[in-house]
Write a structure and sequence with these properties.
The complex is a heterodimer.
Chain A lengths: L10 H5 L5 H20 L2 H26 L7 H19 L3 H20 L7 H25 L6 E2 L4 E2 L2 E2 L3 H24 L1 H11 L1 H6 L4 H27 L1 E2 L6 H14 L4 H22 L4 H4 L2 H19 L3 H15 L11
Antiparallel strand pairs in A: 1-4, 2-3
Chain B lengths: L1 H29 L6 H18 L4 H22 L9 H23 L6 H5 L5 E3 L5 E3 H23 L1 H11 L1 H6 L4 H27 L7 H13 L4 H21 L8 H12 L15
Antiparallel strand pairs in B: 1-2
Helix pairs in contact in B: 1-6, 1-7, 1-9, 1-10, 1-11, 2-3, 2-4, 2-9, 2-10, 3-9, 6-7, 6-9, 7-9, 10-11, 10-12
The chains are: A mainly alpha, B mainly alpha.
Chain lengths: ~350, ~290
């Protein structure tokens, strides 16, 4: 079996997601951990992992859009809000079940993705970011307006869904749901990136004009990136509504959208693993701050919320300044150190 | 009634135009969206709070000192942070300003607490309302905002047209490489743009806080000024005035006659409309780089 340094020697090897023995061992260990965890983890730990998994799904969606297709979006919270509100409204007004709300949420996501994507045909880079910012405020306004009209100023309650008699409630049940959803999202994304669509995205990201000259339909590529990303995110939003049993538009402010951008940055652009690492980092960060605040003077410790804000801003700045490749960049450096040991870099004459 | 509406529009337009001038200066010089501008504005108000408590009932010392401090803050932000982003890709630089904004929002609460505070009472200034002919009323701080806007725009025009530094700054904005080759210190020019932008932003924050106090939600006004800039054209100071008037007029009339909930979205509706039809804004120059 070849190591991952160098070219694969067989076609099947080149296609394989898990191509080395080491990876095989690592993934087996991971699989065992995933199965064991709900039986040994405390309810608090399980809830943390659930939050990380849910954030990972939406972060992977943003990674597909920004890290692979190169389209900036500051309006990711708007997508999440759409998913959550589709579920909230359908469940409250029509008493719809899980199997009705999810497809409709996906449909709403596709429509919204198309709307968010349209400016990308005319605008690039920062201007696109600003237009998604504008759309974010429009979505939030619509949610606010709905809450005000229906007299639901605090928010909408959502009953836990039931699948064939099994009611989805409690951390362990949701752990299973989220784990399946996350694994499905990861496999779907990894696969999609290898197909024609995924490769077209990467080409458009690297250089749009060249991509067009190569015969790639840029309009199609950009819109499909927005739509795919939006569908995954609205589905995550829908799951969020069922998970928390409560939806309020206040939860989906601009800061949430920025947090998702931060996940992509902190995790490392252009890597699915990066999206997951970034999501874990950003979700666990407030808990770490809360823990760390115990050691600070009470004057600061009493303002956990503000402490959180400033520390988060600081961490984001530090990553942008010193580690633009994000957590994945650090991970790769560590990996390469061991892979190449005792050499510092690849010996000459090898790929 | 109609006159009062007009006064309200003028006040809001002055706020947007003053903040917009800050966005324009930085964009013209370094092609960067400074999304921390609202937070820097808010910081100006908090600086006035501090100088106000140091020099009680002495606005003639406290206000200039706060202005100088916010000028220094702009320079500090450039040399401490943004200078390392010079030449980085545009997204990273924009995200850096967002991160700075989040950081500042947390910092002001940590140092000045989250409650609403009034620097006006410390300075011993009551902000008396002024009756205008025709039955309209305007607070002194709002009148000061309009006057400041007029003064700042005339000063900026003269500065950019006539002074050596202004001309150098325009050169740096037009072609940074060429300007550097001709011996213009780019870092100095960028820092100057940040300093002026933070100064005008800080002045807006101070005047707003004299009117209605300051807390950490004030920064959202900075974000709402952004559409005004894009409507007018990101690289045109004249466009900013026009854009600010349009956005302010739309916002005030819609709050008055349609639905107050719309106030936060109206600027962004206009922004989307302009981006769809004329992305370079009403008076901005058409660029090939970022827009297709």
């Amino acid at each position: 079996m070849s190591t991952s340094v160098g070219l694969p020697t067989r076609h099947a090897l080149g296609l394989a997601v898990i191509d080395t023995n080491l990876k095989r061992v690592a993934f087996s260990v991971l699989a065992v951990l995933i199965v064991i965890f709900p039986f040994v983890g405390s309810p608090f730990l399980i809830d943390l992992v659930n939050q990380v998994l849910l954030a990972s799904i939406a972060a992977i969606a943003l990674m597909l859009l920004t890290g692979f297709a190169g389209q900036i979006s500051l309006g990711h919270a708007g997508f999440l809000a759409t998913g959550a509100f589709t579920v909230g409204i359908l469940a409250n007004e029509f008493g719809s079940t899980f199997w009705v709300t999810l497809p409709i949420a996906a449909l709403a996501g596709a429509t919204l993705g198309l709307i968010f994507g349209l400016p990308s045909l005319r605008l690039r880079s920062l201007y696109l970011g600003i237009s998604t910012l504008g759309l974010h405020f429009v979505v939030i306004y619509i949610g606010n307006e709905y809450q005000a009209r229906r007299g639901l100023n605090t928010g909408l309650a959502v009953d836990p869904p039931s699948i064939g008699g099994l009611v989805l409630t409690g951390g362990r049940t949701w752990y299973v749901v989220f784990m399946f959803a996350t694994i499905a999202t990861v496999l779907f994304s990894l696969n999609l990136l290898r197909t024609r669509t995924g490769r077209a995205w990467k080409a458009v990201k690297d250089r749009e004009v060249v991509a067009e000259a190569l015969g790639i339909n840029v309009v199609h590529a950009k819109l499909s990136a927005f739509i795919v990303s939006s569908i995954i995110t609205t589905l995550a939003g829908a799951l969020f509504a069922y998970f928390r049993n409560f939806v309020s538009i206040d939860a989906f402010d601009l800061y949430l959208g920025i947090q998702y951008v931060a996940m992509v940055i902190i995790g490392g652009m252009g890597s699915i693993l990066g999206a997951i690492l970034g999501a874990a980092f950003v979700v666990l960060f407030p808990y770490a701050i809360e823990f760390g605040a115990n050691f600070l003077p009470t004057r600061f410790a009493s303002q956990i919320f503000a402490l959180n804000y400033s520390a988060f801003g600081l961490v984001m700045m530090l990553f942008l300044l010193f580690e633009p490749q994000g957590l994945v960049g650090i991970w790769r450096r560590v990996q390469n150190y061991f892979r190449l040991w005792p050499f510092k870099r690849l010996p000459r004459g090898r790929l | 009634m109609a006159l009062q509406l007009l006064v309200n529009i003028l006040v809001l337009a002055s706020i947007y135009a003053l903040l917009g001038s800050g966005y324009v200066l930085i964009y013209r010089v370094s092609r960067l969206f400074n999304l921390a501008h609202g937070e820097l504005m808010m910081f100006g108000a908090y600086l006035l709070l501090t100088t106000g408590s140091m020099f009680h009932h002495d606005p003639l010392v406290a206000v200039p000192l706060a202005l100088v401090l916010s000028l220094a803050l702009g320079i500090l932000v450039y040399f401490g942070l943004m200078r390392w982003m010079t030449g980085e890709n545009a997204l990273a630089a924009m995200l850096m300003t967002i991160a700075l904004g989040i950081f500042l929002r947390g910092i002001v609460v940590l140092f000045w607490s989250a409650s609403q505070q009034y620097p006006g009472s410390q300075l011993g200034w009551g902000n008396p309302p002024i009756a205008l002919p025709g039955g309209a009323r305007i607070s002194s701080a709002s009148l000061a905002l309009i006057v400041t806007a007029v003064v700042v725009f005339i000063a900026l025009y003269l500065f950019l047209r006539l002074t050596a530094y202004g001309i150098r700054m325009r050169a740096a904005g037009q072609n940074a490489l060429l300007a550097a080759q001709r011996g213009i210190g780019l870092h100095g020019m960028f820092a100057l743009a940040w300093a002026i932008s933070t100064l005008t932003g800080g002045a807006v924050g101070m005047l707003l806080s004299l009117d209605s106090g300051v807390d950490n939600t004030m920064a959202i006004i900075g974000l709402k000024a952004f559409p005004a800039v894009l409507v007018g054209g990101l690289d045109s100071l004249l466009g900013v005035i026009l854009g600010a008037l349009i956005v302010a007029a739309a916002e005030v009339t819609i709050i008055q006659y349609v639905n107050p909930l719309l106030s936060d979205v109206v600027p962004f509706f206009l922004l989307l409309a302009v981006l769809a039809v004329r992305p370079w804004g009403l008076l901005g120059s058409r660029e090939q780089l970022d827009r297709v």
